[in-house]
Amino acid sequence: MAKAPRILIVDDEPGVTVTLQAILEQEGYEVMAALTAAEAQQLIARVPFDAALLDVRIDAADGLDLLAELQECQPDCCAIMLTGYASLESAVRAIRHGAYDYLTKPCDLDELKLTVARAIERGMLTRQLRERLKELEQANATIRALNDDLQRRVEAATAELSRKVVELSETMRRLEEAQRLREEFISMVVHEIGQPLTNISGYAQLLERGKVSGEARVRAVRTIAAEARRLRRLVQDLADAARMAAGRFHVEPTECDLAEIAREQVELARARTDRHTITLEAPPTLPPVRCDRDRVAQVLSNLIGNAMKYAPGGRIAVRLYAQNGCVCASVSDEGPGIPPQELDTIFYPYVRLRQGAETETGGSGLGLYIARGIVEAHGGRIWVESAPGKGTTFTFCLPVLQEPPLL
Question: What are the tens digits of pLDDT across the range 38-50?
Fold first, then answer.
């Protein structure tokens, strides 16, 4: 059963209050009455009302003050002002201040019932509207939060997509570069194989026909042998690069003296050039390293050979030193240097450097790639320092041999 609407009557005339209360209770309303403003204030502070009948003058107090207090405490309660003809202007002023309506005393019965019913309905609609507005504000707040979250998600997704696009573009660029290098590498291999084969074939035909003799015959045999060694080195480089790419490259380390390996490679290099001065700087003693002697010799031979190839002349310095638990070897030249844009890819496979501004040097483009693979297979590292016009220094470091613990 629905709860009966509650009505407050405030009038300092007991007869009026009793009459109005009796009429409204017969209509099914719950009615509470106050004869003074103080009583009314107490009721307004502790009891909720659906409508209120307020006299514009209550024991010398201004009904507008009570109206303001009612509106502040119970904004959904509609106030009906009671007034005599002499105070009609006060009632109109009360409506301007928020009262729902006014009735003149003595009240017409039907008008009283209708006005109270409408006031209660107005209060109910106002309360429902306020609740709907509150729900709407909550829904709007939820929507705003969802929109903010969606916006953040969209921005995050957009940023991630942009990052992926950049990564994809970089991947495509690298793939295209790798394809270009691969095609250049194939052309290089064809050339590197074709030229020795042409020389071998030509000299072999001359020897077969007996067209050469004496010193010319000796030179032909030496040329064939040299070109065969050149082909063997190329095949070995290709095999090493393939094993490194497949993760199947292995070394056979033993205890070695890096200074001894360096001295051998410097002497071999000096015998191959009369345009360079090759020096070796090493301390009297260096800690031994555990390495594959032939492979480390291959690294040094490659680095010294590159210095001879790219530097037209001048000094090539090989330096050995111990540092941070490693033995390091550096090879420095006085050549044209390496452009900054090529430093990041210098240890990639198929990369061949340019000599000067335009001319690309020969070779398989695998030497430095293989050198890095050999050094890293020993647990070491290799790097390059260079600047155009200031020469180049390649350095690699190998861990020193660890003594077994005493038992």
Answer: 899 999 999 999 9
